[in-house]
Amino acid sequence: MSTVVAYTFRWDVVSGSFDVLLQSVRVTLELSVLGLVCSLALGLVVALCRMAPFAPLRWLAFAYIQVFRALSLYIYVLLLYYGIAAVSGINFSPLAAGVIALTMLFSAYMAEVYRSALGAVDPGQREAAFSLGFSRTRTFGTVVFPQAFRIALPSLTNLFVDIVKDSSIIAVVGTADLMGTTNQLNGLYRAPFELYTTVACFYITLVLVLSAAAALLERRLNRHVR
Question: Tens digit of pLDDT for each residue in 54-75?
Fold first, then answer.
């Protein structure tokens, strides 16, 4: 017969490590925000290339999207942190490897979100801007992109939530983020249920707060839209 071993709860480990966990939240947010900003910027560039009249540029952007969506974040992190270092001697810090990996993956998804949103803007908006003497750059920056961003915002918010959750994978290379710190604490105190339950609550709180902030931003952007 199998023996059932009683588990002794040690919530004092959580209370004693709470300050350390709070500091690791800052690293998680830093990693996520940097990944978001870089993904937003690169994703827009890829989307514009995807819609360019120059066919080779469209094909290159299409290949970028397909390739970088095909692999998992786990592979990207290990490739950047260990593989690139072994081949080229370039040593990325865990944070840098994490940001680059998040950017590679999520810029491909954001490119498709941007492309869909840009295509949803009424062509008459462009024509009206051109008739007023706007240049193509000014038309895009002041007329087309603000409307496209409003359309894309719900999907971009979902991707940001995914970035926050997937940032936990970066712990595999030793980051001091929320998951990495929790793994270290568990190795020290052997209290997996208490620590991982706490980190789950942290992630749930982060996602709820970010979703609420995004919903507020969306309402503000839509307040003049009827």
Answer: 899 999 999 999 999 988 899 9
